[in-house]
Amino acid sequence: MRVLVVEDDSRLLTQLDTLLQQHSFSVDLADDGQNGLFMLSEHPYDVAVIDIGLPRLDGLSLIQKARQQDVRTPILILTARDRWHEKVQGLDAGADDYLTKPFHNEELLARVKALIRRAAGQVNPVISAGPISLDTVAQQLSVDNTVLELTGYEYRVMEYLMLNPQKIISKTELTEHIYDQDFDLDSNVIEVFIGRLRKKLDPAGSLQPIETRRGRGYRINPNL
Q1: Parallel/antiparallel/unpaired status of strands 47-51 and 75-79
Q2: Residues 114, 107, 75, 27: what is their CA dihedral angle, to the nearest 10 degrees?
Q3: CA 88 vs CA 55, 74, 98, 136: distances in Å
Q4: Which of 42, 121, 177, 211 has its CA 20 to 30 A from that of 5?
Q5: 164 CB-near residues (< 8 Å, 6+ apart)
Q6: What pLDDT score does 111 carry?
Q7: Is the Cβ–Cβ distance between 211 and 219 less than 8 Å?
Q8: β-strand pairing of 75-79 with 26-30
Q9: Could you list the residue range(s) of the whole structural domain that residue 28 is in?
Q10: pLDDT of 135-147, one tens digit each?
């Protein structure tokens, strides 16, 4: 999953970057509101974490402008303001959730994951397709209750496919959502990850968990 973090405190920005990457997120960073608005408008993110007190363009204005441009990315606002009416202002501007500073890392991660699931129409943190089960909290993939060993990027690919079970996902879309903004979109690395996942999920070749739609992309087999 790809996350945009907009925060002007360089120390906190680095902390959030490290935290999210450690939990298999692809992270883009912006340290002011204008740059954050540009990135949010131009790139596909699964969630954005936005501070309220930003230079050049404050967080509330950033969110309002993004929503006016029909940006539908789920947004978690970070605020040092703990008065209830200021939190309401953030939600009224178009944010989906808020977190007051200082915060616990575990709570931020839980809220980010919940926003991603909600946007995908998934309420349960454990997503299943036949014998395949993906635990988005533990970040584990299992088949018939046997946990598989995955690389970080293999997990990201499978998570995105499982969160969008009815959709055919192109290589470009997968690349945009599992890598940061400067990755080479023409790379064949997605094909490599899909091949590895098929071998791990279905070593006998009987399950066929990931379909290839020629010229269109991939999706989880709806007949599992």
Answers
A1: parallel
A2: -100
A3: 21, 16, 9, 29
A4: 121
A5: 120, 219
A6: 96
A7: yes
A8: unpaired
A9: 2-119
A10: 999 999 999 999 9
Same-domain check for residues 188 and 110: no
Distances (CA, A) of 110 to 69, 191, 201: 28, 30, 27
Burial of 103 (0-12, 13-18, 19+ CB in 10 A): exposed
Residues 13 and 101 occupy one common structural domain:
yes
In single-letter form, the type of residue at position 122 comes to: Q
Give per-residue pLDDT as tens, 26-61: 999 999 999 999 999 999 999 999 999 999 999 999
Burial class (CB in 10 A: 0-12, 13-18, 19+), 143: middle
The residues of the chain scoring below 70 in pLDDT are 81-83, 181-187
80, 188: one domain: no
136 in the same domain as 114: no
